[in-house]
């Protein structure tokens, strides 16, 4: 029955590319706003609040990428050998290319890494540059796909909910208890910690539908319109919670307290669930525009290059101190997004360009 749902779901699948595009822009929003949200000590200013709100809004980005990957991969069966070969070639080839670019960039700017051996160790240890840690995450998820997929095929609704509950305890519970109660949970939550929960959550949410969506697998009792409203409420709740909790605890501790920006917190998870369901229920009727298709195809390359583009704009004087962040952050997000897309589209126009983007 689940396989039938996936086949039916292929008929209308515009939302996945739109979600990928939104997540890409949200990543850029994080990197533009983080120097303000993390670095400014005066929290009672519009300057800091602008950075805090944009940073809070962008935090679901990485969970959304993981959830989307979980839905697209765990909904299908792949043979182990071809799967690993195909997926790793899609990730490893562009990753090695861009990691080399960033190490050269770091060497020119700071003389680091100073030797070939240091460069090799950095490749192994990760993440080479601060935003490239995601590559190591996604490679790890690919390695556990052959284990999770057979279980997913036979898992009942109760099994899936149990796994997701276990993941919540292993991530939210462990993190919050350690931080606020100074208590560590001694149990080793194998296969249920870190981002495995988002990976399976993407599959779980992606295979559900509204009650008025007859062709989909296991519909909820809510209509599509009701689900869309619930999802929008979750986005607002998660974003506001992230911003306010960061403010309250930073004020109480006397320094920037960034725990609630963490991807593996309840507030960010709420936002991610909201975005996933909102896009799935509301952004799937109209066919993709050509620009949406092109941006989705280039999104991986945009993820790689946007930090270089952001630094270039900074060298040109367009950084968070150029204008007040209330207007400066959205302007910079737009400038970086557009320029990153244009550069990647140019690279993809050459033979072999698509293999590294």
Which helices and strands occur, and which strands form pairs?
Layout: H1 2-9, H2 14-39, H3 46-58, H4 61-74, H5 80-110, H6 116-125, H7 133-154, H8 157-181, H9 196-206, H10 224-253, H11 266-282, H12 290-315, H13 325-348
Task: Characterize the structure shown.
With about 350 residues, this protein is mostly helical. The protein has one domain. The chain is built from 13 helices and no strands. Helix 4 (about 60-75) crosses helix 11, helix 8 packs antiparallel against helix 9 and helix 9 (about 195-205) runs parallel beside helix 11. Mean pLDDT is about 90; it is low at about 1-10.
Please supply descriptive tags for the structure shown above.
single chain, 357 residues, mainly alpha, 13 helices, globular, disordered N terminus
Question: What can be said about this structure in brief?
Answer:
With 357 residues, the protein is mainly α.
Overall body shape:
globular
Average predicted local confidence, pLDDT: 90
Q: State the total count of DSSP E strands.
A: 0
Order of helices and strands: HHHHHHHHHHHHH
Q: What is the total domain count? A: 1
Coarse structural class: mainly alpha
Distance between the amino and carboxyl termini:
36 Å
Relative helix content: over 70%
């Amino acid at each position: 029955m689940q396989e039938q749902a996936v086949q039916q779901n292929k008929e209308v699948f515009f939302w996945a590319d739109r979600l990928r595009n939104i997540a890409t822009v949200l990543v850029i929003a994080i990197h533009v706003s983080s120097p303000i949200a993390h670095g400014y000590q005066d929290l009672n200013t519009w300057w800091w609040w602008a950075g805090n709100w944009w940073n809070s809004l962008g935090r679901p980005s990485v969970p959304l990428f993981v959830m989307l990957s979980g839905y697209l991969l765990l909904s299908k069966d792949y043979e182990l050998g071809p799967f690993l070969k195909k997926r790793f070639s899609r990730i490893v080839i562009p990753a090695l290319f861009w990691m080399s670019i960033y190490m050269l960039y770091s060497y020119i700017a700071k003389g680091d890494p100073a030797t070939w051996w240091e460069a090799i160790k950095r490749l192994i240890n990760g993440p080479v540059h601060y935003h490239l840690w995601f590559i190591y995450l996604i490679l790890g998820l690919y390695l556990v796909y052959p284990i999770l997929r057979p279980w997913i095929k036979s898992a009942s609704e109760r099994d899936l909910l149990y796994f997701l509950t276990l993941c919540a305890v292993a991530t939210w519970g462990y993190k919050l208890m350690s931080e606020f109660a100074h208590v560590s949970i001694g149990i080793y939550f194998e296969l249920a910690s870190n981002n495995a929960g988002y990976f399976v959550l993407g599959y779980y949410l992606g295979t559900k539908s509204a009650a008025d969506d007859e062709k989909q697998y296991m519909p909820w009792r809510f209509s599509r319109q009701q689900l869309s409203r619930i999802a929008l409420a979750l986005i607002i709740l998660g974003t506001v919670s992230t911003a306010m909790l960061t403010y309250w605890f930073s004020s109480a501790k006397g320094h920037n307290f960034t725990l609630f920006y963490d991807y593996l917190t309840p507030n960010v998870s709420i936002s991610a669930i909201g975005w996933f369901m909102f896009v799935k229920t509301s952004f799937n009727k109209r066919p993709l525009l050509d620009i949406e298709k092109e941006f989705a195809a280039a999104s991986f390359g945009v993820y790689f290059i946007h930090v270089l583009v952001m630094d270039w704009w900074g060298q040109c004087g367009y950084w968070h101190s150029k204008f007040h962040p209330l207007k400066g952050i959205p302007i910079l997000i737009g400038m970086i997004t557009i320029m990153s897309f244009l550069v990647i589209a140019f690279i993809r126009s050459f033979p072999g360009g698509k293999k590294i983007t």
